[in-house]
Structures are given as C-alpha cells and as structure tokens.
Fold this sequence. Notes:
By secondary structure, chain A is mostly beta strands. Helices cover 8% and strands 35% of the residues of chain A. Chain A has a single domain (13-96), classed as SH3 type barrels, CATH 2.30.30.
Amino acid sequence: MRAVKARFAEGQRVAVLDLEKSGHIRIPFYIRGHVGTVVQRCGSFLNPEDLSVGNVAGPVVPLYRVSFALNELWTDYAGGPSDMLYIEIYDHWLASADKGASSI
Amino acid sequence: MTSHDDHDHDHRDHDHRDHDHHEPLVVEDEPGNIEGQIIVDALQNLLVAQNLIAPGEVRREIERIESPGVHLGAKIVARAWSDEGYKARLLADGKSAAAELGIGVGEAQLIVVENTGTTHNLVCCTLCSCYPRSILGQPPSWYVSKAYRARAVREPRAVLAEFDLHLAADIQLVVHDSNADMRYLVLPARPAGAEKMDEADLAGLVTRDCMIGVAVVPPVET
C-alpha cells in the first residue's frame, strides 16, 4: 500500500493546522493552532478521513504523539507549567514550528 | 428540530426536577439510539432470513467483545511490578508484552504510561470512547460521558479531586487523549507494603480506575 513519508522527528516542534475539513476527522478543535513537541512516531495508519467514506485503498499516513503544555492550551489552566497533554496527530495536520521554519 | 425532539426536551426538563444528577448521563444518548435500534433489529432479521448470519450469532459476537475484563490489565500490571525486565518491555511495546502473557491486544498498539514519584498519568478520549477494551473490557459510563471527555483535558486536577485523588502541586500530570489509533494503559505505582506479595495477590490490588488514572493503588496494611 502507498505510504506517506513521515516529515517529523521526535523532539521537533510542530503546529497543528486547521484544515477546516468536515466529516469524520480525529483532530479535535481544542488542539488546532497550538504548537507542541513530537514525542513519538507511532507508525502509519489508514487515514480515518478516508475510512469514514469507505476508502480503504490508502495511502497510510504517519501518526505522531505530540505533547502540549496544558497552561498553553488554556490560559486559565489551574495547574503547574509542567502539566502536559499528549495527543495523536496525523502528519497532514502538522506543520513545522521549529525556529527558522517557514510560517504555518 | 422536530416535534419529537421538542417533546423529548420537555420530558428531560421534567426528569431533572424529579431525579438526581445521574439523569443527564443516561439521557445523553437516548434519542438517536431508539431509531438506530429499530434499524439494527430490522437489518438483523433480514440477515437471518437470508441465511447470511445464524440466529444468535450477533449475541455471541457481543459476548465475545464484552468478555475481556479488568483482570487482564491487572495481570499485566502485576507482572510489571514483579519483573523489571518485563516492565521495560511493556513500556517499550505494550502489545508485544501483553502477548507474552497470552493476552491479545486487538488495537493497533497499546501504549503503557508509568506513574512514578514525580509523574501521574490520566487517560481519556475527548472525541468518543476509545479505551483499551481488549485488556480492560468496556469503559465505565462516566468515561464516555461528555462531562468527563471535556473536562479531563480542560481541568484534569479538578476532575481527579472529584474522584478523591488530590495530586500534590509538584507532581507532573500528563493527560493522554486517545483520539486516534493508539490505546493507553496506566501502569500504577506499586504500593508501599506490597513488597512481599506474590504476583497473584498483587493483581488483586489493581483496579480499573487505577489503570485509567483516576485513582492510585493505596498502601497495603501490613
């Protein structure tokens, strides 16, 4: 099956895009536009946006676990600066946010 | 909106006056499910009539899906507490480590996150009800409630306090939103007082809530 090449490495800073897709998407609104750090490459999986309309032909897309500081997600977060959210994001929802990277 | 919806809404308000706070959780999924159930029943009757499935096959499949239970997760945790090598393999690749114990993980991968003296982990699924069903069985009703799903990522320390788990301010809290293909199991910290217990007795200490992260394993009285 065709596979999309993984663009990001562990430790890399990434921003979550707002692709404004409708239908069955797995990237919740609360995370969009935020910048986090790739903590793990999880392998590649069929895109749920394709699966939801019966397309099982692929390609498979890379999936990452990405960490975000909870006090960056929520400005009034009631907890310490080390509290984190880890969430899974597919490659096409991410852009590089490393220093020097082109803007998202 | 239809008149059916309006009626349901009135009914719900009425119930609120008469019943306690459990009511919203129960009502949450009702309107769509009634029509869905009619369609499912009709489809099942049709499939049986056409000899595409046998009577009882759906029931047996539901039984198979619902047969895994918390004891499988507890067995994994007890082994990790007893065997450092196993624990390392479990943290590196949860699915393979579960397979070592003869436990099949149906999900793509099982990610095991370890509670330590400095870090506490909490699992949720903000989008729906993703849960490591093959090792913990079906999720509790509160796990799939909209309130837990929204609040676990928004004010997790307040949620934990409602479960009577009061995390010290200097403990790092990591919330895992299982929104896609991975499933998560919390490896609780081995409790004080359990040093001499064998694996079977250790497994008896491990509860579902400890493996979701809304509880910790309390010290063992010696």
